[in-house]
């Protein structure tokens, strides 16, 4: 990642710089299993959590990542993570830095593994990144995602131990 980029816990003041790129990514409907018209208040509640981090350069927020328990009860030791990088900063190591940070934080919080429930198969940059960080595809739901450009495509479940 380029010089001058810091990773830190997200704050409420970051939201006005996160929401514009997040809204764009969600509305495109190509990489997330979220409603393309997800209301801002719902997105804010999902992402401004104590285990979320932002990559920042000065006042600019370049990306956001978070983790939480994937399930409850006797499966609460497996984390889940989500990430969004401002498309203007894609391919610059922001996602990798956020991914590494979230993995470290999840491990420190006592999680023993991380599972991604829905990585769209056509999101090849994300698949490549997560594989390079030790994730493997443990299952693919054929046609599990209705891609607005490619039609039905696979939805990967990816996993790695911490």
Low-confidence runs of at least 5 consecutive residues: none
| Count of distinct strands | 7
Order of helices and strands: EHHEEEHEHEE
Radius of gyration: 15 Å
Percentage of β-strand residues: 35-45%
What's the domain count?
1
Structural class: alpha+beta
Major sheet summary line:
7 strands, mixed
Number of helices: 4
Model description:
With 162 residues, the protein is of the alpha+beta class. It has a single domain, classed as Aminopeptidase (3-Layer(aba) Sandwich), CATH 3.40.630. It is built from four helices and seven strands. It has helices at 15-28, 40-47, 94-108, 124-132, and strands spanning 6-9, 52-57, 60-69, 78-85, 113-120, 136-147, 151-161. Strands 1-2-3-4-5-7-6 form a seven-stranded mixed beta sheet.
Write the layout of secondary structure elements.
Blueprint: E1 6-9, H1 15-28, H2 40-47, E2 52-57, E3 60-69, E4 78-85, H3 94-108, E5 113-120, H4 124-132, E6 136-147, E7 151-161
Parallel strand pairs: 4-5
Antiparallel strand pairs: 1-2, 2-3, 3-4, 5-7, 6-7
């Amino acid at each position: 990642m380029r010089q001058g980029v810091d990773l830190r816990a997200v704050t409420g003041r970051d939201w006005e710089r996160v929401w514009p790129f997040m809204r764009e990514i969600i509305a495109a409907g190509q990489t997330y299993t979220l409603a393309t018209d997800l209301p801002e208040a719902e997105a804010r509640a999902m992402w401004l959590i104590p285990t979320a981090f932002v990559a920042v350069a000065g006042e600019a927020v370049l990306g956001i990542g978070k983790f939480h328990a994937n399930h409850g009860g006797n499966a609460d030791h497996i984390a889940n993570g989500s990430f969004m990088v401002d498309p203007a900063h894609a391919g610059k190591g922001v996602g990798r830095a956020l991914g590494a940070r979230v993995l470290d934080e999840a491990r420190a919080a006592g999680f023993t593994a991380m599972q991604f429930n829905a990585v769209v198969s056509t999101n090849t940059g994300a698949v490549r990144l997560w594989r390079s960080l030790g994730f493997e595809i443990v299952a693919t739901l054929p046609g599990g995602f209705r891609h607005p450009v490619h039609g039905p495509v696979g939805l990967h479940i990816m996993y790695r131990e911490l």
